[in-house]
Automatic annotation (TrEMBL):
It comes from the Eukaryota. The chain crosses the membrane at residues 12-35, 353-375, 381-404. Its main location: Golgi. The keyword Transport does not apply. One of its GO terms (molecular function) is glucomannan 4-beta-mannosyltransferase activity. Its EC number is 2.4.1.32. It is found in: Golgi apparatus membrane. This is glucomannan 4-beta-mannosyltransferase. It is a multi-pass membrane protein. Keywords: Cell wall biogenesis/degradation, Glycosyltransferase, Golgi apparatus, Membrane, Transferase, Transmembrane, Transmembrane helix. One of its GO terms (cellular component) is Golgi membrane. InterPro entries: Nucleotide-diphossugar_trans (IPR029044).
Length: 410
């Protein structure tokens, strides 16, 4: 028969060879990605042990001086602006305005700037009512609206910053975040006492992780990112990105590196990368937290993952040349281009989707191609357990975490 002839056999041999090559490459990439994640967990342990031996946490290498009673000596407090970018956030817009206006800080030294790009009339009215309420209570709260949404969030932040003439520091909160009253007291002094510090990022906490398996999987993933990755990079002095919210920037740092730019969907990573290349330092505060709400619908989660996945690749394509031409040490350039962007922000997603969701099923029907047990089971289990260990009780949700995280983050 024709299908048993040499043409068929040659085609099958070619298919097997291609599948073997693709599987070998995928296994190699998976090993690199897995080792990188496990090393993060080991570095975390090393930092914790070293901190106990020295009796000093990593953040304590930065100077911190508590501010006096603001009611008695308000002039000692720097001018701080709080920017609240939002778009059609009907159900949370008033809550974040309340939280921002309730921050402990002298009223004459604080400004709350609501950057409302909403197109929904009801949302705009809710924002206006809440802004007026706080203005009547003596808080300098203003609403800024644009005629167009050019640049989206980055454009709103950029235009809002142009109106803040005399403010030294700028705190940023997305609409679904809920900062505690002492947020500024726990973050701004670091910037005030350390001239080379460009921004301070605080750790996220979540108020709805037990709502569904989807929110629990997100909590596990983000806890590893916050508690391990951001903490480790900050402790080692490596690059870590501003997470777009729940942080405070030095105004002069933003201006010196060109301001907010809407060229990608990750304007926060873009700005923090330019700050790093410009010689500014950054600090992650693990003990200062800010509550927020995880996306509870699958459509919102998918859009978020799409932005977080595609945005860094967009940025890498535009910033790679700037990284190589910057004045940072050569090893730092290698770390950024190869380890940070290529491995963590690019290859990881293709590995997850291509290896586990495509190649492994194909090898089931191709006995000539064998995936090593350590690559198929042992290593992924080790990575999953290391990731889940940063969430209390996270190991019990390891399977839902893998089911949601592996295919949909790609």
């Amino acid at each position: 028969m024709y299908f048993a002839g040499p043409h068929y056999l040659a085609a099958w041999d070619l298919y097997v060879a291609c599948l073997q090559l693709a599987t070998t490459v995928a296994v190699a990439i998976s090993v690199v990605v897995s080792v990188d994640r496990i090393l993060h967990a080991l570095k975390y342990i090393q930092i914790r042990v070293a901190s106990r031996i020295r009796g000093r946490k990593p953040a304590q290498k930065f100077r911190f001086k508590s501010l006096p009673d603001g009611s008695a000596l308000p002039h000692l407090y720097p001018m701080v602006a709080v920017q609240l970018p939002m778009f059609n956030e009907r159900y949370v817009c008033q809550d974040i305005i309340d939280a921002a206006c309730s921050l402990t800080w002298p009223k004459k030294r604080l400004m709350v700037q609501v950057l409302d790009d909403s197109t929904d009339k009801e949302t705009r009215q809710l924002v206006d009512d809440k802004v007026m309420e706080w203005r009547e209570r003596g808080v300098n709260c203003v609403c800024v609206r644009r005629t167009d949404r050019q640049g989206y969030k980055a454009g709103a932040l950029r235009e809002g910053l142009e109106l803040l003439y005399c403010y030294e520091f700028v705190a940023i909160f997305d609409a679904d975040f809920k900062p505690k009253n002492d947020f500024l007291l726990r973050t701004v002094p670091y910037l005030q006492c350390n001239d080379g510090l460009g921004y301070v990022q605080t750790r996220w906490e979540f108020d709805n992780p037990d709502e569904s398996y989807l929110t629990k999987a997100q909590q596990i993933s983000l806890n590893f990112h916050m508690k391990c990755e951001q903490f480790v990079h900050s402790s080692y002095g490596s690059f870590f990105n501003f997470n777009g919210t729940a942080g405070v920037w030095r105004r002069s740092c933003i201006d010196s590196v060109g301001g907010w730019n809407g060229r990608t969907t990750v304007e926060d990573m873009d700005l923090s990368l330019r700050a790093y290349l410009g010689g500014w330092r950054a600090l992650f505060l693990e003990d200062t937290t800010c509550m927020n709400e995880l996306p509870s619908s699958f459509s919102a989660y998918r859009k978020q993952q799409h932005r977080w996945t595609c945005g860094p690749i967009q940025l890498w394509s535009r910033a790679s040349a700037a990284i190589w031409s910057s004045k940072i040490p050569f090893l730092k350039k290698m770390e950024l281009n190869i380890l940070y962007f290529f491995v963590r922000k690019s290859v990881t997603h293709f590995s997850s989707l291509g290896f586990y969701c495509l190649l492994v099923p194909l090898t089931v029907f191709t006995p000539e191609v064998c995936v090593p047990m350590w690559a198929l089971v042992h290593l992924p289990v080790a990575v999953t357990l290391a990731t889940c260990s940063f969430t209390p009780g996270g190991w019990a949700y390891a399977i839902p975490y893998v089911l949601f995280e592996t295919p949909w983050e790609s």
